[in-house]
Write a structure and sequence with these properties.
The protein is α+β, with helices and mostly antiparallel strands. The chain is 20% helix and 28% strand. It contains 6 helices and 14 strands.
Length: 306
């Protein structure tokens, strides 16, 4: 069996590589109002997970506050250099509020191709914007809640409770074979044929990350894993997840089998097979560049699991 010492840390996933100075000390209603009144402020408009792109299609298109139509849900994202950066959020099914030089695109589609700063801004804006749009009421009593802290909290005027954007931890795991030569991937029942990815699932109440890994892999693939190692994490606002990535090793390769409900197929892939899929020389479809699964698979392919 291949030894598994402490492998080098893989490259950060695209949505975890950069961003802006969040300037949390400036999260106040007064700061938000001042930023909205400043023509130098940069605003990223989001509709669900979609954002406008610049003319080349490889960068975000920012506008000034005066160019944002109402009604919008506003939040303070931070600063780039000296300029304040805000998000102006609209519902996912809203028509595009402005014309974009490079069109509109979703986070999944372009997040892996943007430069680190823009990728970080986009995932932050989508995560905060979705909460601002989708959670206007107090979950305790149902009353409309007031937005505070420049979009980062709500206070219920009826029961006095404070609420914050929610983040749900989920684990995602790349499972290597006993000898280190193959990677186990699964195909979800909701996906198209020949689409494979790492195994993932939400952390349950009262459960550790490690416990969630062991449970999810056993449930979905029948595999018991060893040599469990944390690797990387990345925000994934679908709708509000933090994906915590691990590598693990199968205790018995031959135990692999799908659960038949959520996972309809499991398959061991060699490095040559994965490389062919990434190169478009195979019918197998692997995760897009914006996902943490792409990073885990690519890093295993490059031999960083050993």
């Amino acid at each position: 069996m291949t030894a598994h010492p402490h492998p080098p840390r893989p490259a950060q996933p695209p949505l975890a590589r950069g961003g802006i100075d969040r300037a949390a000390q400036e999260r106040s209603d007064e700061s938000l109002a001042a930023a909205r009144a400043d023509a130098d402020t940069r605003v990223l408009i989001v509709c669900g997970d979609r954002a406008p792109l610049g003319a080349g299609g490889d960068a975000l298109h920012f506008v000034s506050p005066a160019d944002v139509p109402e009604p919008a849900h506003w939040g303070f994202l931070g600063r780039i250099d000296a300029a304040a950066v805000l998000c102006a959020a609209f519902p996912a099914d809203a028509d595009a509020p402005i014309e974009a030089p490079g069109g509109w695109a979703g986070l999944r589609a372009v997040g892996g191709d943007l430069d680190p700063a823009h990728a970080g801004v986009l995932v932050q804006a989508v995560a905060l914007g979705r909460w601002l749009v989708d959670a206007p009421h107090c979950p305790a009593c149902g009353a409309p809640a007031d937005v505070r802290d420049a979009g980062w909290s709500r206070r219920c005027p009826a029961c006095g409770r404070e609420h914050f954007p929610r983040t749900d931890p989920a684990v995602i795991v790349a499972v290597g074979s006993e000898d280190g030569s193959r990677l186990l991937l699964g195909s979800n029942a909701l996906w198209g044929q020949n689409r494979y990815s790492c195994f993932a699932g939400f952390v349950e109440a009262g459960e550790s990350l490690e416990g969630a890994v062991q449970r999810e892999i056993a449930e979905e693939s029948g595999i018991r894993v060893t040599h469990l190692q944390y690797r990387v994490s990345q925000a994934w606002p679908y709708p509000r997840s933090l994906m915590v990535g691990f590598w693990a090793v199968a205790s018995r390769d031959d135990d692999a089998r799908p659960d038949g409900e959520e996972i309809v197929s499991v398959r061991w892939f060699s490095r040559d097979e994965l490389q062919a899929a990434f190169d478009g020389r195979s019918e197998v479809v692997l995760p897009g560049a914006a996902s943490i699964a792409h990073t885990l698979i690519r890093d295993w392919l490059d031999g960083n699991d050993r």
